[in-house]
C-alpha cells in the first residue's frame, strides 16, 4: 500500500479544535524542540531582528524564545484556546483585534508587539495580510496538513518567504502502513518535489 494508505486521510478543523479542548496535544513540547536549538543558527544565519513565521503554531514555546531574542514572530493556528494558553503560560499581556480581510478571524498580539498570532485557517492568510518572512519554523505543520492539501500549503509558504529566507522543516519518518497520521509521513522525495 505504501504512501497510498494515507493520501486520502483528512483531519477536519473540528478534530484539531477537539484535540486542544480535550488536552490531547502530545505534539506540544513543553521544553521547546531540541532541533530548533540545534539548528537555530542555520535559521538566523547571523541575522538579527528577523520576521519569523510559525505555521500551525499551537502554543509553541519557541515563539517566546525567538521574540525574547529580538525577532518578530507571527503564528497562525485554528485553535483560539491554544493561542490563549500560549499568552497565559508565559504571562504575556496581549490584545485581540479582528482581521478585516478574513471573516471571523482574530489576531492576538502581545502588548510588546513582537508576537502576532492569527486565529484562522492558514489558507486564509496571504502576504498582503501578514507580509513576508525571513525565516519559517515548520515543526509539525507540513506533516499535519492533510496530504491532499500539501501542494496548496507549500505554494502558500513559498509566497510568504523573502528571497533569502530560511525554512527549517521537521518531518517524521515511519511506516505509513502502521500509523494513519497525523503526523503524516512525507518522504524526502516528495519534500523536494513540493518545494522544488
TrEMBL record:
Localization in the cell: Cytoplasm
Catalytic activity: S-adenosyl-L-methionine + a thiopurine = S-adenosyl-L-homocysteine + a thiopurine S-methylether
Segments traversing the membrane: none
Annotated residues for binding of S-adenosyl-L-methionine: 16-27, 56, 77, 121-122, 139
Entries under Pfam families matching the protein: TPMT (PF05724)
Keywords: Cytoplasm, Methyltransferase, S-adenosyl-L-methionine, Transferase
InterPro entries: SAM-dependent_MTases_sf, Thiopurine_S-MeTrfase, TPMT
Signal peptide residue numbers: none
EC numbers on record: 2.1.1.67
GO biological process: methylation
A single MF term (Gene Ontology): thiopurine S-methyltransferase activity
UniProt KW Isomerase keyword: no
UniProt family annotation: Belongs to the class I-like SAM-binding methyltransferase superfamily. TPMT family.
Name of the protein: thiopurine S-methyltransferase
